[in-house]
Specification:
Layout: H1 3-22, H2 25-33, H3 40-59, H4 61-66, H5 69-88, H6 94-101, H7 104-114, H8 122-139, H9 151-172, H10 178-200, H11 209-234, H12 239-246, H13 248-261, H14 267-294
Helix pairs in contact: 1-11, 1-12, 1-13, 2-3, 2-11, 3-10, 3-11, 5-9, 5-10, 6-9, 6-13, 7-8, 7-9, 8-14, 10-11, 12-14
Organism: Jannaschia ovalis
Keywords: Membrane, Transmembrane, Transmembrane helix
Protein name: DMT family transporter
Length: about 300
């Protein structure tokens, strides 16, 4: 495939992944309504994904055995981060949880600077400032202090923090292949969900066939196919383009939750969310500028 065609295909995959994950809250809440509350629904989804990906991981077992342990741990931790993100949809408003997760660039920049000694361009310093201001504005929209007000919001914030730790480890070590990476990602999420689930709600007495079907479909589509495709596409695009295209997730989640669930953000929450998104743009902007200067 020609380089230009590869770039177009990879861009469409990333864009489609953002749209798809903007609708991810739907199967999570559907499973909650079918009796899989707390983290049990996410455990079912990610467990199904891990089972579906297991044959490909077995074929690639030599690569898994030779993989860097820190890389494996980082990918598994990324799965735990997305597990918290998933469970959070049962306990808070969709758009707010997504926006809290999208503070990841702020935490990643801080971690990269403090732990790894990576350089921090001025625009990324501005991104940190804007992201933190956006966080305070978003969470200060109510009557209380500007901190997460419920379990869902805390999970959204924690998921972004954990994802930043995971991606810092992924960047520092050789990457995993798409198939084995997706398996480790789903496996980490499944183990995390199984550990968390008993703390949030009792184990369901029985599972209905529709619940199993929803879990299998969501695991295959979101945690299997989309993550593997995103891994392939991200390796062929500038990080800036990948980050910007994935921001479609915020728009799709906000619009779909407003239309289908009647969830709306207030003016201050929208203003804070806009600052968070702007911080994300500034976080990747220096990369784009650097490539433009070299070209």
């Amino acid at each position: 495939m020609e380089p230009a065609a590869t770039t177009r295909l990879a861009s469409l995959i990333v864009l489609g992944t953002g749209v798809l994950w903007g609708l991810y809250w739907l199967p999570v809440r559907e499973l909650g309504g079918l009796g899989l509350g707390g983290a049990w629904g996410t455990a079912a989804i990610t467990g199904a994904a891990a089972l579906l990906l297991a044959p490909m991981a077995w074929v690639r077992r030599s690569s898994l055995a030779a993989a860097d342990p820190v890389a494996l741990a980082s990918v598994a931790l990324g799965g735990v981060a997305f597990m918290l993100y998933s469970v959070g949809f049962l306990y808070g408003r969709v758009a707010l949880i997504v926006l809290l997760f999208f503070l990841t660039p702020v935490w990643s920049t801080i971690l990269g600077r403090v732990l790894m000694g990576w350089p921090t361009p001025r625009l990324r310093l501005a991104a940190i400032g804007l992201g933190l201001v956006g966080l305070v504005v978003m969470l200060g929209a109510g009557d209380g202090p500007p901190v997460p007000q419920g379990l869902g919001e805390w999970m959204g914030l924690a998921s972004g923090l954990l994802w930043s730790v995971a991606t810092t480890g992924m960047r520092a070590r050789p990457p995993l292949g798409a198939a084995e990476g997706a398996f480790v990602f789903a496996g980490g999420a499944a183990l995390g969900a199984l550990a968390l689930a008993p703390l949030l709600s009792p184990l369901p007495a029985a599972l209905a066939l529709p619940a199993l079907a929803w879990a299998a479909a969501a695991g295959a589509l979101w945690w299997g196919l989309s993550i593997a495709a995103l891994t392939w596409a991200s390796a062929r695009l500038e990080p800036a383009r990948t980050g910007l295209l994935l921001m479609t997730e915020v728009l799709v989640s906000a619009v779909s939750a407003a239309v289908l669930a009647g969830e709306h953000l207030g003016p201050r929450e929208m203003a804070g969310g806009a600052l968070v998104l702007l911080a994300g743009v500034l976080e990747v902007w220096p990369v784009r500028r650097a490539r433009r200067v070299r070209s």
